[in-house]
Amino acid sequence: MLQLNKACTHLDLDLLARDERNKAEFWINRKTLKEATSISILEDMKKLSFRREFGRQIAWLGTKDINYRYANKNHLNTIDFSFAPAIHHFTRFISKEFSQDFNHLLINLYSDNDKLNAHKDDEPELTGAIASLSLGDTARFTFADSHIDLEHGHFTIGNREFFNNFSHSVSPTFRGKIRFNLTWRTISS
Ligand SMILES: O=C(O)CCC(=O)C(=O)O
Ligand SMILES: [Fe+2]
User: Fold this and answer.
1) Does residue 16 fall inside a structural domain?
2) Residue 155 belongs to a domain
3) Atom number of ligand 1 nearest to Cα 181
4) Rounded to an integer, what distance in angstroms lies between the CA atom of residue 94 and that of residue 131?
5) DSSP state of 14
6) What CATH number should be reported for the domain holding residue 56?
7) pLDDT per residue over 99-139, tens digit each?
8) Atom of ligand 1 nearest to the CA of 168
9) Domain span at residue 142?
10) Is the CB of 150 under 6 A from ligand 1?
């Protein structure tokens, strides 16, 4: 079971301090999660079923009846966060930390040579930041003239301006093993 209090203590999200975040036009932060938290969330992954979409597999869950529509496809939440207890705890934690009601979680699963081509997460119904957690193998996240290698336990969060302005892409995994990337979003209704 996720030890939320310990996880909170070890997850100091103020890599870029709150007031600096408020001043910056674009920002993306990265931090590493406590291993116990990553393992609990990986346990939740086993309960989900994934389907193929645009070069990788996906699953989604979140607040009932919230629909995230992109690329002419609906992603309506029929599974509530409470179905996945570690994810549920972590969602509440980041929602409080960032004062944002994350109501949709899109999970990417990369295996073999899966990758994600350049895209923006700029659908008009998306509001606020997108938070993401990488588990498993490492992949390269490329944006603008820059990149970050996302390893197991890396938690990133980028603001709306970042996702509206920067295309980003994701490489195949470095060691050919599987990688999960969980992306928490807020869909306005
Ligand atoms: O796999 C990643 O790190 C990012 C995934 C992504 O860009 C997305 O789901 O929109
Ligand atoms: Fe994206």
Assistant:
1) no
2) yes
3) 1
4) 8
5) T
6) 2.60.120.590
7) 999 999 999 999 999 999 999 999 999 999 999 999 999 99
8) 7
9) 27-187
10) yes
